[in-house]
Amino acid sequence: xxxxxxxxxxxxxxxxxxxxxxxxxxxxxxxxxxxxxxxxxxxxxxxxxxxxxxxxxxxxxxxxxxxxxxxxxxxxxxxxxxxxxxxxxxxxxxxxxxxxxxxxxxxxxxxxxxxxxxxxxxxxxxxxxxxxxxxxxxxxxxxxxxxxxxxxxxxxxxxxxxxxxxxxxxxxxxxxxxxxxxxxxxxxxxxxxxxxxxxxxxxxxxxxxxxxxxxxx
Length: 217
Hints:
This protein is α/β, with parallel strands linked by helices. The chain has helices spanning 3-24, 34-42, 58-61, 75-85, 100-112, 134-142, 190-216; strands at residues 28-32, 46-49, 68-71, 90-93, 117-119, 145-153, 156-158, 166-168, 173-178. The chain has one domain.
């Protein structure tokens, strides 16, 4: 690791967390959380599904909720892991490409212990807004419900990355909305698992469309 990389690893998480906090304080944010309030009161372990490109505000919005998040083992992933720790999120290292089995087991144990997790079902490399089977397997084995969540902004920057990563512009109107829970039977066969994957994808696209429409009003 060269000097530039060391400096980025040291300062990147601090600068990113500060920038996110300052940005978030300029935003007008409406929270539509009715669908999950009962789960929060009951302390039910939950798998929250959010598109990779819609993650920007999540650490600030739900800081200190002790959420587990699967983060790539890459060098960039280390910076992201350090950043989300500053908001009280707990990174679980691994992805579909590196350390996937270990990360999957860690998430399963977290859910069994009553903790909730955040899954990016189209990550880490896409295709964009296409749900991969991993979230279905996690829900089936753990028995935890999947809840789709999306964040929309009236004005935003979109990066040129595969996920078109979105960052709200200062003073934008934002909406965060949770969808209805999706349950997957432990004994689901191949056809049922594929149907569940499509249900999650459809629900995520629906709630994403909703927040974009609501933020634009």
